[in-house]
Write a structure and sequence with these properties.
mainly alpha; two-stranded antiparallel sheet; 18 helices; 2 strands; disordered N terminus; transmembrane helix; transport; Xylose transport system permease protein XylH; cell membrane
């Protein structure tokens, strides 16, 4: 036993000292291994985005203009936040059908508190977020403690919170919010170019330092780690879209505050899922709830927490819907919100079967859906075409997910 570790360390040192020319071959080898094992990752989504961009740009030269891309970055935020929340529920193998209605009642509460009752807008926002969390905790408790299936609980929530939405609005039907207030500023604030560049460089710097420190710690512990060249390659692959996106957004109005808020939630949830004990518990419950319970995980608490997060993100999404529209109506948080939020999560790579996914699925999936929407609007096509195309993309994503799971089972059996 004592002779194995020096040999492993020697192999790792040899791997780290490979010349840079072997880096591409190593990356290709890793990719082949992942594909053979059914781990498609974000590759199908990235390929789809490239195809969508090529097709719509060839049909309308305005598709890739800074103005259109800037508008897209703001328009996807509300649905993206709902999708980010529902991903937490999907990871444990459940579904939340209430998020659209929760976003609607959250928007109605926000407008009533801020406009009708004159509360400071920041206070109204905080109360609405807390109300959303309470709604999710209620759903999760009924599911986890009473034993009612999540589908039924959230279907009841879909109907009940839609009714509450209409009740809160009352005879007014529509409530407008001030265009110069905090609520409106959430989707109408754009930062100066230097702020966008500063944020981008800070993110890239933190990422690079974290990767280098992590690699050094693993090497010191005698664990397999990435070479410096591979870390730099991964950093470059991240830097390209980040810096390119900032350059495009700065070419129009600057980086939108709303988009930064959305990306902030995506990154925060990703770190929680990958780097914390709570994240490991969520994946464990999604993989096998009974095994997780026997391992000492409080399965009920995990289930309640993910529904709480889902509804809380839905309420924040509802705030963004109000900000974008300068008000709330009976149509806010309609069925389309629920459909696109769940579709974005699945299209982005989160499995409907639980145990596999990432918060980045919300970002990637919403980029696909919003790209399709924006492209069809430029072509002046009817909304019916958008629904049909989105349905086809969603079906392809589900088929790929099922094929990936089958490939993983076969790979695990050695077949």
């Amino acid at each position: 036993m004592t002779q194995l570790r020096p040999q492993a360390t020697q192999d790792e040192t040899s791997a780290q000292s490979r010349p840079p020319t072997s880096l591409l071959g190593t990356a290709v080898g890793h990719l082949r291994t992942r594909l053979r094992g059914g781990e498609l990752g974000a590759m199908p989504v990235i390929v789809g985005l490239v195809l969508i961009a090529v097709v719509f740009q060839s049909l309308n030269s305005n598709f890739l203009t800074p103005q259109n891309l800037s508008n897209m970055s703001v328009q996807l935020v509300a649905y993206g936040l709902l999708s980010c929340g529902v991903i937490m529920v999907l990871l444990i193998g459940e579904i939340d059908l209430s998020i659209g209605s929760v976003s609607g009642v959250a928007g109605a509460l926000l407008a009533v508190l801020a406009v009708n009752h004159g509360l400071p807008e920041i206070v109204a926002i905080a109360l609405v977020v807390l109300a959303g969390a309470a709604i999710g905790a209620l759903h999760g408790t009924i599911f986890a403690k009473v034993g009612v299936p999540a589908f039924v609980v959230t279907l009841a929530g879909l109907l009940g919170w839609k009714g509450a939405h209409l009740f809160v609005l009352g005879d007014q039907g529509t409530i407008n919010v001030p265009r110069d207030g905090t609520i409106a500023a959430l989707t109408k604030t754009f930062f100066a170019p230097w702020i966008g560049w500063s944020v981008a460089l800070a993110i890239l710097g933190i990422y690079l330092v974290a990767q280098m420190v992590g690699a050094r710690r693993r090497a010191n512990a005698g664990l397999p780690t990435r070479s410096t060249a591979e870390v730099l390659l991964r950093w470059a692959l991240l830097a390209a879209p980040v810096l390119g996106g900032v350059a495009i957004l700065n070419a129009w109005s600057g980086v939108p505050l709303a988009f930064l808020i959305f990306v902030g939630f995506v990154v925060a949830f990703d770190l929680v899922l990958r780097k914390t004990r709570y994240g490991r518990m969520v994946f464990a419950v999604g993989g096998n709830a009974e095994a997780a319970r026997r391992a000492g995980i409080n399965v009920d608490l995990v289930r309640i927490s993910v529904f709480t997060l889902s509804s809380m993100l839905a309420s924040i999404g509802g705030i963004m819907l109000v900000s974008r529209a300068d008000g709330v109506s009976q149509a806010t948080g309609g069925d389309e919100v629920l459909m696109f939020a769940i579709a974005a999560a699945v299209i982005g790579g989160t499995s409907l079967f639980g145990g596999r996914g990432s918060s980045y699925s919300a970002l990637l999936g919403m980029l696909v859906i919003q790209s399709i929407t924006a492209g069809l609007l430029l072509l002046q096509m009817d909304a019916s075409v958008r629904f049909m195309i989105t349905a086809v993309v969603l079906l392809i994503a589900v088929v790929l997910d099922a094929m990936s799971r089958r490939s993983q089972r076969m790979h695990a059996r050695g077949g």
